[in-house]
């Protein structure tokens, strides 16, 4: 398919998702630090658990670089317990806060003002921060035009017929980045809309294709499969 055609289709998909779900106002968070803490805590857990953990930190007045630094990892783990894997995640929060404290004089803005490649490298050097978390921080906390890839992105765009099975993170990211205008708003909203579709409709098992705004362009919808199975069944019954 021509590059221009892919770009047009990706923008049409974006518009169809936006029309269906409306603006997502993602990422929820009053400050850049709250977005970063959420990005670290949300690994392998539903967002409502993350919200409980963040509220616990807020209630204790610890949602700050100095708050995370001065709190022992055990206490931090207890506060973020709803986010699961809480000891691991508490250590990650502290490691992030220590990076800001030691290398950037406790000033988060200094870290966030690095160039995009420098900031990405700095984040990826922290234990437990992979490409998805680093890119979520770049996009949603630092407002950089970086496309975030997650399991929903791969699943949906494989089903739509744009991606091969088992493609790696950077291949998927390049697919979007090289075919879409490089705009923070677009990447921000697009990822959030993909999450909405993957979370509510394009489920891993039994996707709810009859409710999907992308059904008319999907290569592998379960409806298509059901229809062909029904057709096959009818033929067999008639012969
Ligand atoms: S039609 Fe079904 S399989 Fe295709 S994207 Fe929508 S929910 Fe997923």
Explain how this protein is built.
The protein has 239 residues and is mainly α. It has a domain at 32-141: Hypothetical protein, domain 2 (Endonuclease III, domain 1), CATH 1.10.340. Helix content is 64%, strand content 0%. The protein contains 13 helices and no strands. Helix 1 packs across helix 12, helix 8 (116-124) packs across helix 9 and helix 10 crosses helix 12 (184-200). It is globular. The chain starts with a helix and ends with a helix. Residues 228-239 have low confidence and may be disordered. Iron/sulfur cluster (SF4) is lined by residues 156, 159-160, 201-202, 207, 209, 212, 214-215, 218, 220-222. GO terms for molecular function: 4 iron, 4 sulfur cluster binding; hydrolase activity, acting on glycosyl bonds; metal ion binding. Keywords: 4Fe-4S, DNA damage, DNA repair, Glycosidase, Hydrolase, Iron, Iron-sulfur, Metal-binding. InterPro entries: DNA_glycosylase, Endouclease-III_FeS-bd_BS, HhH-GPD_domain, HhH_base_excis_C.
Summarize the model shown.
The chain has 239 residues and is mainly alpha-helical. The chain is 64% helix and 0% strand. The longest helix is centred in the N-terminal third of the chain and has 19 residues, at 3-21.
Radius of gyration, in angstroms, nearest whole number: 21 Å
Kindly report how far apart the N and C termini lie. Answer: 41 Å
The shape, in one word, is globular
User: Given this structure, which CATH class of the domain at 32-141 is correct?
Assistant: Mainly Alpha
Instruction: Kindly state the percentage of residues in helix.
Output: 55-70%
Q: Please identify which CATH superfamily of the domain at 32-141 we are dealing with.
A: Hypothetical protein, domain 2
Small molecules in complex: iron/sulfur cluster
- Largest sheet, described in full? none
The third-level CATH topology of the domain at 32-141 is Endonuclease III, domain 1
Low-confidence stretches: 228-239
Summed over residues and divided by their number, the pLDDT gives a mean of 92
| Total beta-strand segments | 0
Instruction: Give the amount of beta strand, in percent.
Output: under 5%
């Amino acid at each position: 398919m021509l590059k221009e055609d892919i770009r047009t289709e990706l923008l049409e998909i974006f518009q169809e998702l936006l029309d269906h779900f409306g603006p997502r106002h993602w990422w929820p968070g009053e400050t850049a630090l709250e977005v970063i803490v959420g990005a670290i805590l949300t690994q392998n857990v539903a967002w409502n658990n993350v919200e409980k953990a963040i509220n616990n930190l807020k209630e204790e007045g610890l949602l700050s670089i100095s708050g995370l630094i001065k709190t022992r990892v055990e206490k931090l783990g207890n506060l973020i317990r709803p986010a699961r894997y809480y000891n691991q995640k508490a250590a990650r929060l502290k490691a992030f806060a220590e990076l800001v404290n030691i290398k950037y004089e406790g000033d988060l803005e200094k870290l966030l003002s690095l160039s995009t490649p420098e900031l990405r490298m700095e984040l990826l050097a922290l234990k437990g921060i992979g490409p998805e978390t680093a890119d979520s921080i770049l996009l949603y906390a630092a407002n950089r035009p970086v496309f975030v890839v997650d399991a929903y992105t791969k699943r949906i765009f494989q089903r739509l017929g744009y991606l091969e099975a088992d493609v790696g993170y950077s291949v998927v990211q390049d697919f979007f980045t090289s075919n879409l205008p490089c705009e923070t708003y677009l990447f921000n909203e697009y990822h959030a809309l993909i999450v909405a579709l993957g979370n509510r409709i394009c489920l891993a098992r039994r996707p709810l294709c009859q409710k999907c705004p992308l059904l008319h362009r999907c290569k592998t919808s379960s409806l298509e499969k059901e229809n062909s199975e029904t057709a096959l069944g009818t033929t067999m019954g008639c012969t």
